[in-house]
Amino acid sequence: MITCKELADFLADYVSNELRPEQLAEFERHMRVCPPCVAYLNTYRQTITLGKQAICCDDEKALHDIPEELVKAILAANSRRA
Predict the structure, then answer these.
(1) Are the beta carbons of 14 and 38 closer than 8 angstroms?
(2) Which tens digit of pLDDT belongs to each residue from 41-61?
(3) What are the structural domains, with CATH classification, of the chain?
(4) CB 69 within 8 A of CB 40
(5) Closest Cα partner for 43 from 64, 71, 15, 23?
(6) What is the pTM (predicted TM-score) of this model?
(7) Do 4 and 36 form a contact (C-beta atoms < 8 A)?
(8) Confidence at residue 53, expressed as pLDDT on a 0 to 100 scale
(9) Contact in structure between 46 and 13 (CB atoms under 8 Å)
(10) 3-state class of 17 per DSSP?
(11) Which residues of the chain have pLDDT under 70?
(12) CA 20 to 30 Å from 34, out of 24, 51, 66, 72?
């Protein structure tokens, strides 16, 4: 049976229905016996839903209401990564 860490590695493929049949069987076997992974999957799905809702915003005003300090902090953090 796969471990919790291995399950997390396959999460994106599971949610997008891209697991091979043998991977899917192992994934679902683990989910039947591991409540923490079931909870993790549920929060993962919620995160995807909320993320999609956030980027589907048609309100142009919302884009202009982003605090300048936040934009600068994100850009600074991004440049430190490079």
Answers:
(1) no
(2) 999 999 988 888 777 655 666
(3) 4-81 (1.10.10)
(4) no
(5) 15
(6) 0.63
(7) yes
(8) 79
(9) no
(10) coil
(11) 56-64, 82
(12) 51
